[in-house]
Amino acid sequence: MGLLEGSGAYWRFLGQCTQCGHCTGACPSLTAAGLSLGGIAEGMLDAERSASTPEELACAIASDPALVQAVRGCFFCTSCKNTCFAHNDVCDLVYQARVDFQRLGLIPREAWSSVLVDQEWDIFTAYRAIHGIGYADLTRHVASEGHEAEGDCAVAFFPGCSLAAYGPELTREAFAAVEELGGKATLIDCCCGSSLKSAGFFDRAEALCERNAEEIEASGARELVCVCPGCANDMRAALAKRGLDVEVRLLSGWLAERGFEPRRPLPEGPLCLAKSCQDRDGSYLEQTREALGLGEGEGVSIFNGCCGAGGAVSAFDPSRQGRQADAKLSFAPEGSTVVSMCPTCTYTYAYRLMEAPRDVRSKHYAELLFESQFDWDKTFAQLGGMWSGEYGAWLAQVFA
Ligand code: SF4
Ligand code: SF4
User: Fold this and answer.
1) Is 357 within a domain?
2) Do residue 170 and residue 88 come from a single domain?
3) Does the C-beta of 74 come closer than 6 Å to ligand 2?
4) Would you tell me which of 150, 296, 327, 344 could form a disulfide with 140, CB atoms 3.0–4.6 Å apart?
5) The pLDDT of residue 297
6) Is residue 41 in contact with ligand 1, taking CB distance under 6 Å?
C-alpha cells in the first residue's frame, strides 16, 4: 500500500470522471471549494505524489484548504450524484477520503470523541445512563437479570441510537406494536455506526453492523424492523454479508402492511415530508405516506437534501448545520409540520427551531403513528445540563 489507503479508489474514480463539473454546481460545499468530485480524487493523489512520508502527506493535504473543505464539508446527501451522468458514487469517494484523513490525523479528536458508538460510552449511552434509560427487559436475546438469552424471537426491532436515547416512551410503544403484530420480539439496542463512518472509521462501522447481525442471528428473528432508513440500509448490507435470510423493513411500511392505524389524528396545517438522504429512490418515503394515509395533493410537500446533520459537518464548520437546516426549513410554510424519516433529522430540525423559533414543528413519522412523542425541550435541557451538572467532570474526562 502507498501512503494513501484509498489510492486505488481515487484512481478508479478519476477513470470514470470527465471533470464536467456538474456535481460542483449541485453542491454549496464543492462550489465553495471550487472542486468537482473528481478534483477530490485528483487532489488526494497529487498530495501523495508530493510526499514521501505520512507526515509530509498530512501537511500537503492540510495546506490545501479546498481539498479539506470538499472532504470534511460533505453531508453525504448524494445530491451531486443525481447530476453525474456516470453516477459516480460520492459516498465511496468521500468515505475513503475521510479514512485517509483519519489515518493521517487530519480529523481532530474533539470532532468524534463523543460519537464512538462502538465503545462503552458515547453521547447516547452517557445520556441514557445519566437519565436512567434502559431496555434490558426488551433485549430478550441477551441474558440479563430477569431472563435468560432467548433464541426463539420472530422479529427484531432496531430503534437506532437517537430514538432509543431521546424517545424512550416512543421506543417502548413502537416495540409493543411490533410485538403485537409480528410475534415475539427483541430489541437490538445498538447503533448502525454512521457517525463512525463520518469520522473516518469505516471498518469499525462495518464491524459494528456485523456485531448487530450476529445478535440478530442469535435471536432467531427472521425480520428486522428499523425506524431509520440509514439503519435499514446498513443492516441489510451486513445481514446479506453474513448470509442471513432476514428481511429488513422500515417501521412505517411494515406497520402499514399489517393494517396498523395511526393512534392520533394528523397534525393540523401543511405537512412537509423530509426525504432521508439514505432513501435514494424514495421508497421509504412512499411507505411512510401510505402508513400515514397521505395521498397525492393533500397539503403534503416533499423536502429533499440533508437536514444539516449528515457527515458530521458541524464538527468542521459549526455554523453550517444551522444554515443548512434553515435552508430546508425556509420551504416549510407557516403553521406546518416537518416530518422526517430519520430521528437524527427530527432532532436537528427541533434543535434549529429552538435556536431560531418560527411557527413550524419538527416531528418524526413515528410520532404521527403513536401516542408517545419526543419532548425536545426536556431533552435539550438534559443534554445541556449533563456537562455542567454532577456528571460534567466525568463526561469531560471520558470524551477528552
Ligand atoms: S458530475 Fe460526475 S463526471 Fe462530472 S465532475 Fe462530477 S463526478 Fe465527475
Ligand atoms: S454528497 Fe452532498 S454535500 Fe457531499 S459533495 Fe455531494 S452534494 Fe455535496
Assistant:
1) yes
2) no
3) yes
4) 150
5) 66
6) no
- The separation between the first and the last C-alpha atoms of the chain, rounded to the nearest angstrom, is 32
Beta carbon of 79 within 6 Å of any ligand 2 atom: yes
Q: Tell me the ligand closest to 70's alpha carbon.
A: 2
Distance CA(361)–CA(46), nearest Å, equals: 47
Ligand 1 atom index nearest CA of 18: 3
Query: Which residue, judged by its Cα, is nearest atom 2 of ligand 1?
Result: 84
> What residue ranges of the chain have pLDDT lower than 70?
1, 296-298
137 and 254 share one domain: yes
Same domain (yes/no): 233, 145:
yes
Q: Which ligand is nearest to the CA of 16?
A: 1
Q: What is the CATH number of the domain that holds 94?
A: 1.10.1060
Report the separation in Å between the CA atom of 67 and the middle of ligand 2, taken as the mean of its atom positions. Answer: 13
Under DSSP, the state recorded for 147 is: B
Same domain, 242 and 131: yes
- Residue 173: which of 374, 379, 378 has the closest Cα? 374
The percent of residues in the chain predicted with pLDDT above 70, rounded, is 99
State the ligand closest to the CA atom of 23: 1
Boundary residue ending a domain (258, 283, 307): 258
Same domain as 225, residue 281? no
Bridge partners, residue 272, by sequence: 301, 338
Q: What cell does 154 get?
A: 420472530
Report the separation in Å between the CA atom of 4 and the middle of ligand 1, taken as the mean of its atom positions.
22
Determine whether the shortest distance from the Cβ of 75 to ligand 2 is under 6 A.
yes
Given this model, what pLDDT does residue 2 score? 86
Closest ligand 1 atom, CA of 16? 3
Residue whose C-alpha is closest to residue 274's, from 195, 205, 161, 368:
368
- Together in a domain, 248 and 293: no
Domain termination residue (choose one: 188, 223, 258): 258
Q: What is the CA radius of gyration of the chain?
A: 21
Give me the DSSP letters along 213-245.
HHHHHHHT-SEEEESSHHHHHHHHHHHHHTT--
